[in-house]
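User: Continuing from earlier, I have the next pair ready.

Assistant: Great, send them over.

User: Here they are, in order.

Assistant: Folding the first of the pair now:
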Amino acid sequence: MRFTLSSRRYPHHVVLIGLAVAIVVIWAHVAFAQGSEPEPLLQTEGVLEEGDRRIAQDNSLYDTYSFDGTAGESISITLESDAFDTYLLLVSPDDEVIAQNDDVSPSNRNSELYLTLPLDGQYHVIVNAYDETGEGPYRLVVAPAASGTTPSNSNLTASPSSEADALIQQGMQQYRRGQFAQAIATWQQALEQFQRLGNDSRISDLYNNLGEAYRSLGEYPPALHALQQSLAISQNLDSEPETGATLNNLGLVYLDLGRYDRAETYFEQALNDARRTQNRYGESVALKNLGTAYYKQQDLGAALRVNQQSLSLRQELGDRYGEAATLNSIGVIYSALGQFDDALRVYQQALVIDRDVDNQAGISVVLGNIGRLYRQQGKLSEALDIYQQALDIRREVGDRPGEGTLLNNIGFAHLAAAQYDSATTQFEGAIAIWEFLRAQPLSDVNKVALFETQTESYSGLQQTLVAQGQVDDALTVAERGRTRALVEQLANRLADGTAEELKAPDLETIQTIAQDQAATLVEYSIVDTGLDNPTLYIWVVQPQGDIHFESVDLAQMDASLDELIQFSRTVLGGRGRARITSQSDPLTQLYQLLIQPIKSYLPDDPDANVILIPQAELFMVPFPALRNAQGEYMVEHHTLRTVPSIQTLDLTRRLQRSQPTLSLATLTDSDFLIVGNPTMPVLPVLAGDEPTPLPNLPGAEREARAIASLLNTSVLIGDAATETLVKQRLPSARLIHLATHGLLEYGQLEATGSLEVPGAMVFAADDEEDGLLTAEEIFQLSLEADLVVLSACDTGLGNITGDGVIGLSRSLMTAGVPSIIVSLWAVPDAPTSALMTTFYEQLQQGQSKAQALRQAMLETLQDYPDPSDWAAFTLMGETGSV
């Protein structure tokens, strides 16, 4: 319990601080030379240590200093320590506490006071630790307030700056109690006052505080805005402690958004700054946060190491809040490592501290993690009980993201206990919160990353519905749990009001889409209870509306599904990790898993459309090359294409219908953009590599020339195929064919340090452009093309997320292209040239895009029987004729 301000005299036992104990008195006479800065009234360094007096209320150590003050004088008092959590009090000449301060902000344990002195006489400054564990060196400065905080009126007890500081402390108390919305309102009032006063230092503090509070509510756009404002001001003021706190808080927002690499960058910068300035408290905070980023990226060893470093620092500094938070993080890591006894031990240590310092938010977090630990051990009743305790606190403090996480975890506990009605209620509650959070005006990349942290709830609800035999309803949940950001982007491209009425498709809508497409839809969903029991769900929606469902147990496989897919890609010469060896053909094994269970529901007519809707690693499956028991490839029996969700299929069809009908016979030269074998730029393929010229592609040149001749149009080759010219022509072209190098890694932040969306197409460089048209650049374009063919290596790859594959194909789709052909591995030159030429010949004969690609594969297979030569390409989106 801390001191409270009141009109009463200072309590008797505290009055003794200023009367009966040895007082360190530093007298300072204020001398003003014309135009000179005022000297400090008091400036000293000291140490709280055993032997100092202790306050009876909480047994905390204190020192006392005195200075002479004048009524009406505005002053600032700052107390800083890297060793302990500070607490600062000011006692007036008549022995009354007139001001006190705990922390500058939720992330800064130093103390500050700004006020106008009410009386002439001797004031006492009490340098105090927050609790009995606090001790170590500190620095105290009392000085005339900066001109921006000097009041312009004659009110001696309530200057604008002191009123604003009182609001800051009120907000701090609200924040500590978990009253985040109230803290925001209070700090906004203080911010307005300090903006009128022009006090940039306090404005920076307040933006930082607001950022933390908005983040606690899950309101990420205003959190990022406030923190970026704070960072700009603190960097301009060269305020290193405040800059470090803001860097940490920005990292925490990106951590919540699921952008762990970006969060890690901020934490590392904060850590480096703290070590450079010997800010041990800042170092402890950054270490703990960095450990969380490592944990989220599955680097458990590094996560444990830096958290243990943080714990040692926080214990040395007497930072009990921080000690509890770090103990909790260590418990999470122990739990992930299967060291359940160690995890429970440190959780309980954290819980004792959080309860001792009345940290309700911390208590809720630890309780939630203990509940998860019990669930992992099969102690479902204990888990549900402790989860409920945590949930009550989260709801009381208004922590929406934390509430969603707990509802999700409670849902899985009910699911494990076969309490399906209760599980359904909890999962639906969690999903409602996730969809509320995603409705904020986030950037596309942030929305995708945030969605990736939420997909577990959709998986849990699918499992719950399937367990109750409600398999059709589970299909709608599977749709609801994928490509939400992509769907928004596509809807925004339409001018028919779709974006305003956008919602996930219900069962009737899904059946209507299958009928409209005259296609058989095959949707895959990989679900996992989190207890190493993966299952594959497969729904088949036939054109007439019939829905069939199959479930495949993946836990009985010798290798994981991901390993099998990677093995198949290695066999085909693609980017795969040959972590398993087998005498069996992986293409046949995948057929048995993915196609055989639903074979009887697929059309007998090989020209009938089959649309595959994969999930996760299934996006990397070479479906055309899958082999049945008779050794026949899937492409021999079915016309295939791929989409990331059924709803995107509906939206790409609307995009196609919103554009003028495309006919090869009526297109003019300006409608085509055909590129082949540009002059290759000299560049490092990956960050740190030596710049090197990419190899020429003579087969791509022959391919482009042959296609241009076939379509009676011009072609861009060599030096003429500059990125600048390509970017100029892209927006108006109706059919685009790019035969060049594709770079998968380029654009990944960890690879190049430059961009966020992976993938680039290579063209000739010039004075304006570097020759690399990135997926991020394409994302910003508005295209009118009906078809884009990326005849290059790995153009269908990227970062696999719940929103689909983030890379070139998604960027083209969001740019407005309804049909895209991309590759899943490094395609060989000569077979690709033959395949692409045949594809356009088939289009000229009136075949649909999917039928044309199938026929091109079948004809190429005759001359190149190895599927690595012809099976890499896949059609995404629409299949209409051109």
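And the other member of the pair:
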Amino acid sequence: MKSSPANSRIGARAFWSLLHRFSLRYWKRHWLKLALLVGIVGLGTGSFLAIGLANRAATRSFDQFAQTVSGRSQVVLTASLGALSLEDLRAIRRALLDSEAALAPQLVRNARLADLTESRYEDSVVTLIGMDLLAASNFLIRYGAKSGFLAPEDEEETSRAPRVFTQESVASEYGWAPDDQIPLYLEDKRIDLRWAGTIPQLDESYESAARVLIIDWQDLASALRSPLQADRVDLIWAGETPEEETIAEAVGSLQQANPGHWIIESQAQRQESGATMTLALRMNLRALSALSLIVAICLVFQAMDSAVARRQGEIATLHSLGVSTRLTRRLWLADAAFIGLLGGTAGLCFGWIMAHASTRLVTQTVNTLYFRASEESLSFSLGEAATALGLTLGFCLIAGWWPARQAARSPLVETMRQSGRRSSYSRLAYLIAAAVLAFLAWRAYLLPPLPAENGHSIPVGGYALALFCIGIAVCLASLSLEGLGALTRPLGRSHATLRMALSQFRKPVTRHRLALSGVTLSVGMTAAMVILIGSFESTVRAWIGNTLQADLFVRSKAVSSMHDSADLSIELYRELEHDARVSDIGSIRSQSVRIQNAPTQLIGFDTDYLHRIDHTTWIDEPENLLDLARGDRAIVNEAFASRFDASVGSVIELPSATKSTSVTVIGIYADYGNENGAIGIDQQPYEELTGQRAPRGIALHVGQPQEIEPLAAELRQRYPAIEVMSNRWLREETLRIFNRVFSITYALQAIGLLISVVGLGSMLASLLIERRGETGALLRIGVSPRQGALATLWEGLGLATLGVASGLSLGAALGLVLVFIINKQSFGWTLALHFPIGSLASLAGLTLAGAACVSYFVGRWSANRPLTNEE
């Protein structure tokens, strides 16, 4: 029978009235507990949101630096290998004769500001963008900009230093005023530029990326001593964003005129390229950030179970007055939603604050592995906020559902008899759950990965296997909890406080198991990350030891990370080659290239040097490395083999503006600095394909050890724009860079551990409140507050010890999953498994110490409270 609208209104009024009296009044009375709970949930939500915002900032900043004049570019053209020539630019212009699109060719290079203090060295890298300033000025003024780059009198100033334009904030940061000289390290040269003013823009509301210097492209080409060419061409329509049909027509015309080496992408596709490149990193950070939220939800489950246990009398009274079990369930779910809403809202605030620190850490990682990202791209996202808040509310409702179900289904007589103490769930249920999860884990292990847009794979089976392993560990830990109670007799004979503590585990309540689960989960995930980082570091150390065998390494100071490229002059190479102190010399050249429309690196190897100096870590060693000099052979790194499904014998097509070259893979080598992969050919065919002769890096072997430092000092003095690195310094710097990649994970691990320890203290506090009768009896028969606190200490420490043991076992299992499945499928790298015993022991010690402190002070608080009070 359907309820009438009048009955529905009465039911709604009864629900809201009961909610106020049953829930809100309770939390108002216990506001401190509510504040702690909301803070912990907010911390978990905030960490999840912060990573989401940081990931968005990193991907949004991809390619942002080049959208400087117009504020928006709708289509971008690049070359599949190298740069676009003047002939390419003419062909592009001819293809767009019927279009109103303006062309903005750009030459882009990284440079480093000279003469800055060492403390500002990390912030001294800038991006130089060479543009046709005359054409850009005409475009800006024609379509309503307040100013252009050039004034009429500028045409007469030909003898002065080339001018650059920046954002006002950049000029303020470095204290530049009009006509100030700006010394820069560009490739292996030091040049002086003149600050001419701020960057004019057509769209004043648009913020271009930070640390961008605009220069005339002829001036930049002259400084680079290279022919006039463009690294990219932006197509810009003035005024409002053009209709999709207009853009599609222009793209169609370009495709028809495409000689085969143009890459034509919409701005949305360019942004997607940035997201694709960082896909694996973002997914793994998302999974790790969810740890804090999941542990926080365990605390919500614990709090709801505690509230149900303490309010059994109220539940029984409501049932005796005729309140339905359905309405009782709704009240409890509303209670959980109230906590989730408050915690989620607090998490939005926490997340925005934490995002600033997270963005810096994520940006450092992206800068190291992928592309130059800008911290200034951070902005609040309603979509990310809605996702974080929705997950928090959903998880809180799930956490509140089971206690609500138990409370609503408890018979009245049983409810009154329990008097606030709830028995734990059946051990058989945990055993069955563990068996089911073990079966699902086996199935997940057999699940093949999904192809990912970045060319690697999405390890859905690995993620599922890790989740099921967590479930198995939690179930097994919960099953072993009664084992602590079995130690009551042998360990408690001479220690009364220990016996009091262990007796609580003879019949542990659900909150014991929830607190144990939180510690197990936090320690397990942290231990797994420790094992992954330890395996990565030990593998990289071995790789560096084998790879870096030269005495000195030379590169441009403009290089700040792995993705940067800056040439050294061929004259510098020839000079070093003929230096009597140099016993051997090797060089490497590289350029970005698109293969199968995916970005990777083309490397020109000095084959003779590779053969003379055995410094390559091979995954699949060539039968004869000298075959590389034939010109139709190549070696690839492991990430390339993974992304492009290549193996020894595979044929790879290399694009070029003049011809297409096929090479056969003869070997696969290890390389832990390039997730996008690299394919290497001999330097001679490399020069023919790219037209590039200048090396990117030079390795020097010095004949006499005592001459290493004098030679390095001499080179630094003669060539201030180059960086001369000793073998030892480069090893340490490489390890520092790789450790920086994992910097964000340390903060996430700390948050998860903090929440688990606080959850343990909250569990003990709620149980001690329920056991006020027992505590009062013990105090009256002579047990001192100190002994009561010690009993609580042993209880918490017992739980923490079992949680640490379970967590370390879980961490070992998850470490195997991370190293051999998730890492391999996400990044394409093979790591040697390493268990850092010292770090794992420190993790266990810190967790136990934190648990001991929290447990003791909770025990002192409980023992010193008046017995007449409820809390």
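Worth noting for the second one:
The first strand starts at residue 75 and ends at 79. The CA atoms of residues 493 and 596 lie 73 Å apart.
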